[in-house]
Every structure is written in structure tokens, then in C-alpha cells.
Amino acid sequence: MFTRRFVLLIGVLVTLNVVLFFAAPGLALRKAVINELFGPKMIRAQVHTKAGDWNLDRGVITQVNSTQLTLREFDGRIQPIPLASTTVVIRDATGRHLPLSALARRWHVVVTWPVIGPAQWVDVEKIPPRRRAAFG
Description:
Blueprint: H1 4-38, E1 44-49, E2 52-64, E3 68-73, E4 78-82, E5 88-91, E6 97-98, E7 108-114, E8 121-126, H2 129-135
Parallel strand pairs: 5-8
Antiparallel strand pairs: 1-2, 2-3, 2-7, 3-4, 5-6, 7-8
């Protein structure tokens, strides 16, 4: 009726089907959730970890000086964020570090800072065209 080869082929195909059924959605789901929560649609987030609580704010810089950065978030909220000399400014895709004094109005940034204390990281997402040449 069934040859040994046919039964072996069916066994391999069923095993492969079961493995792909359970593995693929689990891997894709994690990446999709992270991209949805922390991707370009995020405005602000509060993240609670064992090490402490963190704020993430995305917006456009309206004012900046050596001690404070003010963001206008995409929902209209104005968020003042304290800065320190230890704050690291990271240029978008290049990963280059910029001096804190390089930050300017109209830059699109994501700021990561603890609930209590100054910003730890300022990730620059977009620099307006006329300022871009200096930081290319």
C-alpha cells in the first residue's frame, strides 16, 4: 500500500510543517510589536525596567541650551527635558557622536532620559536641509 519512502517523506513534511507553524509567528510577532511600539509612530513612552523607569520622547526641538532641551511632540505637547554634560548626541543612521552644542531648533530627535535626572541619549532622526551640510 504505502512504500517506506513515501511514509518517510510524509513524516519529514509533517515535522517541517509543525516546526514552521510554531517558530515563524513567534519570531515575526516580537519584531512587529517592537517596531509598532518604538518605531516611527511612537510619540512618547514610559518604560519600566528592573534598573529604573525611563522616558522616551520624540519631537522637534523648539529651544535648546546647555542645560535644557524643549521638544514639541507630534501631538502638540511641549516637553522640557534637562540636559547634562554626560548626555550623548547620536547622529541618525551613521551612529556618529555630535557635541551637545550642535543641537539646534527644528531638529527631529528621540530623547531617552530617566524619570529623575537629565537626558542620557539624544538620537537625531532628521536635520533640516540648510543645517545638514555641516553635519553630513
